[in-house]
Specification:
By secondary structure, the chain is of the alpha/beta class. The chain contains eleven helices and 15 strands. Strands 3, 4, 5, 6, 7, 14 and 15 form a seven-stranded mixed sheet that branches. Helix 5 links the parallel strand 9 and strand 10.
């Protein structure tokens, strides 16, 4: 099969389109013919070698796909519902190995697509919407009227969080660059913040002097400290990324990573208790053992999709062989929403 392989850690040009052996499913797994692949910022970090658990090169990156079941191996019944069968349209969390024409995935990580859902949407939903939903409503227990600051509100997780917040009646603050401010307003962000012109802490405190209920921060470094300052009693800081460690233009930068690490605050349990604030870490890769929880959350997300409450925004679709171009497009901050790789 054809796959996009990271030959060595580095900038996007390290990708190489190669013919590799077809994956062979084992008991409890499905073979899926890939139609669309969702690109996440985590994939960019994988390629640079700074994402936790990244294999040594050469390896195939990627975390989510949508496609068609090709082969069902004995023992691959889903935790609930009907047995998968060839021809089923599905989405799957892959834990690497997604940038390929064929993927093998455990049945517990495969989910049928709702009737009529396009493969691009199916590949755009799992990582982004599960990250946002799990953070906001499972771990964060946000209620109607609560206020949330979403960093990178025009990105994949950011747009998912904004849509989910609006569906649940939350008040939204969202940061993005100057070119994306109009888009934030169009999609209903209550307080759009241009991080190049405004201090987001000042903006949040202007409208919420006593602090807000949640900040979602994928940036890391000193951003964690500043996000913490936006919270009031009962507030939750959700950390789900560390993009501050990524070098400009997609290059790996040890100095930048160390600087971001040194700028990361150390949260004292006694201080958290005294201020009644929570710090929540979210990593979907560590949630694979919580199958029932993940499936129930994705069921709710798909129900919201089917009723029109959410809809992934596809920024651009690239052919599989143009993975390097797609990664550079994201490094250049050109995307609004999800970037997809298409497999013909």
């Amino acid at each position: 099969m054809r796959a996009l392989v990271v030959r060595r850690y580095g900038s996007p040009e390290v990708f190489e389109s190669q013919q590799v052996p077809d994956p062979q499913p084992k008991a409890g797994e499905l073979l899926i013919r890939v139609k669309a692949i969702g690109i996440n910022f985590a994939d960019l970090l994988q390629r640079m070698g700074i994402y936790p658990g990244t294999p040594k090169p050469p390896f195939i990156p990627g975390l989510e796909i949508a496609g068609v079941v090709e082969k069902v191996v004995e023992g691959s019944r889903p935790p609930e519902g009907e047995q998968f069968k060839p021809g089923d349209a599905v989405t799957a969390l892959t834990n690497f190995n997604a940038y390929a024409e064929w993927v093998v995935a455990p049945a517990r990580q495969v989910h049928r697509l709702p009737a009529g859902m396009k493969f691009d949407d199916g590949a755009a939903i799992p990582v982004n919407y599960l990250t946002a939903y799990h953070s906001m409503f499972t771990m964060g227990n946000l209620q109607p009227g609560d206020r949330i600051l979403i960093h990178g509100a025009a990105g994949g997780v950011g747009i998912a969080a904004v849509q989910l917040a609006r569906a649940r009646g939350l008040v939204t603050f969202g940061t993005a660059g100057p070119a994306k401010q109009e888009y934030l307003r169009k999609m209903g962000v209550d307080h759009a913040i241009d991080y190049e012109k405004s201090d987001f802490v000042d903006v949040v405190r202007k409208f919420a002097p006593d602090g807000i209920e949640m900040v979602m921060d994928p940036i890391g470094g000193k951003s964690f400290s500043r996000s913490y300052k936006c919270l009031g009693p009962g507030g939750r800081l959700v950390v789900y990324g560390f993009s501050a460690a990524a070098g400009p233009g997609g290059k790996r930068s040890v100095l930048r990573g160390l600087t971001a690490l040194l700028q990361t605050p150390r949260f004292s349990p006694l201080k958290l208790m005294g201020e009644s604030i929570s710090v929540i870490g979210v990593n979907l890769g560590r949630m694979q053992s919580r199958t029932a929880l993940m499936r129930s959350e994705l069921d709710e997300i798909f129900q919201m999709y089917s009723t029109g409450k959410i809809k992934p925004v596809i920024s651009k679709t690239f052919p599989l062989d143009q993975g390097a171009v797609a990664h550079q497009y994201m490094h250049d901050r050109k995307n609004i929403g999800k970037v997809i790789l298409s497999v013909k």
